Amino acid sequence: MEEVKWGIIGCGDVTEVKSGPAFNKVPNSTLVAVMRRDADKAADYARRHQVPAWYDDADALINDPNVTAIYVATPPDSHADYAIRAMRAGKPVYVEKPMALNAAECDAMNQVSRETGVPLFVAFYRRSLPYFQRVKQLVDQGVIGAIRYVRIDMNWQPDEREVGREPGWRVSPAISGGGLFHDYASHQFDFLEYILGPITNASGIARNQAGLYPADDIVIANFEFGSGVLGTGSWCFTVNREQRTETTQLIGSAGTITFSFFENFLIRVETTAGIEEYTVPFPAHVQQPLIESVVSDLLGAGKSPSTGETGARASAILDRIAGGNADALSV
Hints:
Elements: E1 4-9, H1 13-16, H2 22-25, E2 29-35, H3 39-48, E3 53-55, H4 58-62, E4 69-72, H5 79-88, E5 93-95, H6 103-116, E6 120-122, H7 130-140, E7 147-155, H8 173-176, H9 180-196, E8 199-207, E9 218-225, E10 230-236, E11 245-252, E12 255-259, E13 266-271, E14 274-279, H10 288-298, H11 308-323
Parallel strand pairs: 1-2, 1-4, 2-3, 4-5, 5-6, 7-10
Antiparallel strand pairs: 7-11, 8-9, 9-10, 11-12, 12-13, 13-14
């Protein structure tokens, strides 16, 4: 393979800026087809993004001989189905996060990848973003000494799209696998494992306090890394706008790193030497650096940091915290 020719299943909002345009900006990569069940919307996307072919049937796109790799960008309830169909057709898959509805579906996807030898990647794009690479570099350099514990704090006002109207898919567990905790915390746990190693134990309490939608709206968690680092986290999605906050702190033996997964581009490092701050903006298409690594992997020129095996771990952690499963996580 000299060029990766992509087909997108599910060309919705996430593909408009975050990912879709990147497939044509990465070297040796081209977006050649898109699929959406609504034919008019598929055709409109193809026209606006200059994509040569569009479909309203997933199998038609998967079996298009001009498509050599598939990006699954639907809600999580169909990730496993589409990814498995694509892999059985011999097409490598790049799937949105969370990887699937639950850890069991992730395991099934990885099993098919192993059986067929067809690569599977997950869109945990923070692993490749310069902002988060800077956080990793600071940890690797020992700027704050040995990491002792992690603290995640996320207070969010109710999503205006969900209040007073039919709830969106992200807060419908049958479609998303959970609530906004699953949507946001999957990124957080995936990146924390990337920089600190595997989480071996995780537990929590998940509740629905406000009754705005079926999913949990508050989660409290404790977790432990194999290295001995401990972590706590709280996620509340029903506070007012003035209470909104989103920070993660890495507390070490010689200082603290404070950063944000979603709110800003500032990294704050506090040690006995003083305070240093770094501003690292996101690129225009946030998934582009990770997509570039996936293309390099498929062409035998490098390795992507986010695979089906790493992506499945985030879902296993979410299952234990929100589902009350206290079993130890495999490493």
